Each structure stands twice: as structure tokens, then as C-alpha cells.
């Protein structure tokens, strides 16, 4: 059994200073395939560059991946002492009392250069042996976990048919289709093509939540397409987010929100809620730290942050924080706030819960799928409701907050090892489809690339909520 991971996105994004959420997912998959004994000598990698498909040497990919890990880790640490001091000053703390004496960030010139590793990947020394030796990828499982390249149906068709691959895809969300008002013009059409590619070619589909699978199934129904065998496996929270109860704050109460500043994240409801709190409580109102890069169409939010004098002493924008500092802030916060209008998953929310920090969030099914009943759920447009909840959680004797802390003590959040324990079994099933399909109802591979309801036999159809037939169908639980 051979597994081929598409790392096109990692190559394309390798020059960036820090990774996005999807970058982190593809990186986690690459490191798992390279490091797990289960895939020793069976993991391969592919990249599609300039309309060509390149098979890459696993040993050289390993060097590239580890260089990229170190580069991104050190780049995240390049936040300056001045920025950390701004946070401490905003929270009325003595310098160094929250973040300690941070060393000087590494100079940009000392960051690992990923270009030599990329050049080695595409050097004749690595590529020619691949081209000259007999192809051994026939029947391999092809993994695409980033949506990269899926807006070219013909490109995927050519690769899959030309190399006899069995495609598996990780679907992150359908937000461009369900909420096109929150994406750039043209993104909805591109994402529709991606989802059509997934539905028409997949041997198996992985969804990060039941909500995502339900939306994919609804899309298939509307477009008269079938749904290949599918399973839900939540993405993993890094091990650093966990272990230990949050530190009891000895500083003025503050709240944290994490996410790109863009319309979908709904920062406006928080800013208006804070205006209400400041007008009611004056200097005693709690504070808000906004952690996230500036996205697109955010002018109204930025105008309020920069120009509203009422909020000047109570709201601080912090474009980015390294994970170690973000964890420290989360542990001190009265709660972490997520007022989003739509989410495919919402990993920062689950990272906060893994730290046993209370969360107040929009009442979204994507959150409920993993978080269960523990969070405080609110309507994303209920500004006064958000203001009341924040005021309540800011009280030192808040019973609502104490109640959530008790629930969080029994929560077990999914980790990457949990995710991959499921994925490894799915890969084995897909790779060995001929043998498994002999068992009634266990598995049937895709009927053809142009998959539609008319081409799917009765035993092959998998409806929303139904998953691959093995014990991993319900891999995680919100409680121990």
C-alpha cells in the first residue's frame, strides 16, 4: 500500500512568514506520513507545478518540511519586545510580569532559508530516478487535504487516471457556497468546482465536522450528485494546548478574541457590546484584546478600533502573537470570544477549551459538533446579549463562568493522534478496497470519475450521517 500526499500548497506557501490554518493541516499530514512507522517506505509526495505533476523524493521532502517547520516557528517568535510591552501596559501590568523577560527575536537573516530545500526537491538528482524507474504508484491512495488544485477538474482527472490513484479528500468547509457574501467575488464559483471535483472523483471523503458533511451532502443533493463514502474526523489540537487549569487572574478582567479581522468573524458585535459596557461601567468596564491579522473589507471595524475615543482605553488590536504568548493570554482571560457568523471548524475555540478556558461563542452547529454543551452560546447579532454575558463573566464571583469551568474539567478535545488514528484506518480500507468490498456493505469504490446518482448502485450510496463501516465512525466524544 502506497500513500501519495499532495504538498502543492506547502510549496506555494513556503515563502510566507507564518502559516494559515490549512497550511498547518497539510504540514501535520506531511509530518505524520514521514514519521509514522505505519508508512515507512510507503509514503510518497506529489506537487503540481505549472500544469505538471511531480513525484518528489520522500527523504528530500522530509528536509524541506523540517526546514519549513523551523522557519515558521522562528518567524512567529519575531514579535518584538515593544509589542509585548504594549499588551502588558494595556493590562496595567509591570513590564515583564506577564510575558517575562523575552529574548530578542532572531534577526530575519537568521531564519532558515527554505529555497535550497525547494531547489533540491526539483533537482535532476531527485527527479530523474523517479522518472526512469518503473512507476510503482499504480493503485496508491492520493491524499489532498488543502483543496489545492481542485478547481481544475480536468487536471485532477488527468492525474488520477494517468497514475491509477485512489483519491481521498479532506473537506474543510463550504462557506463560499453557503455564505458567498463573506468571500471575495468569484470564490463561490471556484469552490463549487472544487466540491464537484471531490464528489465526482473521491474514493473517500474526510470532513472535519458533522456540520461540514451535512452541508456537502446538501450540496450534492441540490446538484443531483451522489456522496462517496464519508467520515467525520475532527482536526487535532496541538499538545501544547492543554494540561493544567487556567491561572486565576490577578489583573483587571479582560477578554480575548482570536481570528482574522474580516466580516465573517463579526468583530462589530463585540465592539458595539464594548461601547455599551464602557458607557455603563466607565473605567471599571473589562478590556478586550483582538488577536488577528487584518483581512479584507474590514474598514468599519478598523475605523472603530482606531478612532472611537470611547473604546480607546478598553480595546487593543494585536495583529499576531506566537502560540506560547497566545496560550498565556488565554489562560489569564475571563473568556475567549467567538462571535462568528459562519465557521467550518473553529480551531482556536477548541484550543481555548483544551486549556480549560471558558468560551462565549455564536450558536453554530460547527461549534456544537465538537464542543457540546460546555460553551455559552449566543446569537451572533444579539449585541445586548453579548454585552450582558461579558459583564457577567467579568465578575470575580461569576457563577456562569464557574459552571462552565466545571464542565470544561471533564472535556476531552481531539488531538492530532486521535485524528490520525482514524485516518490511518481509512487509508488502509481505501488501499485494500478490493478485499474489503467483498464484505457486504463494507466498501465500494467509486463507479467512475463522472459520478452522479444515475451511476451509483443502491449499495454504494452513502447518505448524510452515514460513515465508513468500521469502529472509527464516531472517533471522538466531548466528554471523557
Instruction: Decide which structural class fits the backbone.
Output: alpha/beta
Quick check: average pLDDT?
83
**Number of domains in the coordinates?**
2
- Total helices: the number is 19
Report on the biggest sheet: 7 strands, mixed
Tell me what the structure shows:
This protein has 480 residues and is an alpha/beta fold. It folds into 2 domains: 3-232, Rossmann fold; 254-408, 3-Layer(aba) Sandwich (Rossmann fold), CATH 3.40.50.2000. The chain is built from 19 helices and 13 strands. Helix 14 (347-354) links the parallel strand 11 (336-338) and strand 12. The radius of gyration is 24 Å and the shape is globular. Mean pLDDT is 83; it is low at 434-480. One of its GO terms (molecular function) is glycosyltransferase activity. This is Glycosyl transferase group 1.
Quick overview of this protein structure:
One of its GO terms (molecular function) is glycosyltransferase activity. With 480 residues, this protein is of the alpha/beta class. It has helices at 8-13, 21-35, 58-76, 81-90, 115-121, 124-132, 153-163, 175-178, 187-201, 210-222, 267-281, 299-307, 323-332, 347-354, 365-371, 383-394, 399-408, 416-431, 433-436, and strands spanning 3-6, 43-49, 52-56, 141-144, 166-171, 204-207, 230-232, 254-258, 287-291, 315-318, 336-338, 359-362, 376-378.
Amino acid at each position: 500500500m502506497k500513500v501519495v500526499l499532495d504538498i502543492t500548497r506547502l510549496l506555494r506557501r513556503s515563502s510566507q512568514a507564518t502559516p494559515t490554518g490549512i497550511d498547518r493541516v497539510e504540514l501535520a499530514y506531511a509530518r505524520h506520513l514521514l514519521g509514522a512507522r505505519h508508512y515507512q517506505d510507503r509514503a510518497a509526495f506529489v506537487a503540481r507545478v505549472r500544469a505538471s505533476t511531480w513525484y518528489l523524493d520522500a527523504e528530500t521532502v522530509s528536509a524541506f518540511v523540517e526546514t519549513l517547520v523551523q522557519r515558521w516557528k522562528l518567524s512567529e517568535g519575531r514579535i518584538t519586545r515593544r509589542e509585548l510591552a504594549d499588551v502588558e501596559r494595556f493590562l496595567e501590568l509591570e513590564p515583564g510580569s506577564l510575558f517575562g523577560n523575552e529574548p530578542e527575536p532572531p534577526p530575519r537573516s537568521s531564519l532558515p532559508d527554505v529555497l535550497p530545500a525547494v531547489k533540491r526537491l526539483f533537482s535532476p538528482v531527485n527527479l530523474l530516478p523517479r522518472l526512469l524507474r518503473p512507476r510503482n504508484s499504480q493503485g496508491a491512495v492520493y491524499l489532498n487535504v488543502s483543496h489545492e488544485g481542485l478547481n481544475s477538474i480536468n487536471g485532477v482527472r488527468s492525474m488520477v487516471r494517468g497514475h491509477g490513484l485512489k483519491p481521498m479528500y479532506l473537506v474543510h468547509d463550504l462557506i463560499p457556497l453557503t455564505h458567498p457574501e463573506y468571500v471575495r467575488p468569484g470564490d463561490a464559483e471556484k469552490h463549487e468546482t472544487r466540491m464537484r471535483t471531490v464528489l465526482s472523483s473521491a474514493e473517500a471523503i474526510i470532513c472535519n465536522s458533522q456540520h461540514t458533511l451535512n452541508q456537502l451532502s446538501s450540496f450534492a443533493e441540490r446538484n443531483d450528485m451522489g456522496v462517496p463514502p464519508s467520515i467525520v474526523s475532527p482536526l487535532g489540537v496541538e499538545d501544547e494546548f492543554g494540561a493544567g487549569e487556567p491561572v486565576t487572574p490577578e489583573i483587571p478582567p479582560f477578554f480575548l478574541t482570536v481570528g482574522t479581522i474580516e466580516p465573517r468573524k463579526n468583530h462589530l458585535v463585540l465592539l458595539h457590546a464594548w461601547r455599551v459596557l464602557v458607557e455603563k461601567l466607565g473605567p471599571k468596564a473589562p478590556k478586550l484584546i483582538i488577536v488577528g491579522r487584518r483581512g479584507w473589507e474590514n474598514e468599519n471595524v478598523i475605523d472603530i478600533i482606531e478612532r472611537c475615543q470611547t473604546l480607546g482605553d478598553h480595546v487593543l488590536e494585536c495583529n499576531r502573537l506566537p502560540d506560547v504568548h497566545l496560550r498565556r493570554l488565554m489562560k489569564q482571560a475571563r473568556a475567549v470570544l467567538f462571535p462568528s457568523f459562519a465557521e467550518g471548524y473553529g480551531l482556536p475555540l477548541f484550543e481555548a477549551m483544551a486549556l480549560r478556558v471558558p468560551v462565549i461563542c455564536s450558536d453554530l452547529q460547527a461549534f456544537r459538533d465538537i464542543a457540546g454543551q460546555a460553551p455559552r452560546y449566543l446569537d451572533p447579532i444579539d449585541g445586548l446579549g453579548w454585552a450582558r454575558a461579558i459583564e457577567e463573566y467579568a465578575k470575580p464571583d461569576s457563577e456562569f463562568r464557574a459552571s462552565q469551568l466545571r464542565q470544561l474539567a471533564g472535556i476531552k478535545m481531539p488531538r492530532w493522534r486521535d485524528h490520525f488514528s482514524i485516518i490511518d484506518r481509512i487509508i488502509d480500507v481505501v488501499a485494500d478496497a478490493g478485499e474489503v468490498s467483498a464484505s457486504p456493505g463494507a466498501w465500494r469504490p467509486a463507479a467512475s470519475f463522472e459520478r452522479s446518482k444515475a451511476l451509483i448502485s443502491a449499495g454504494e450510496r452513502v447518505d448524510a450521517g452515514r460513515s465508513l463501516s468500521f469502529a472509527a465512525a464516531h472517533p471522538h466524544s466531548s466528554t471523557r
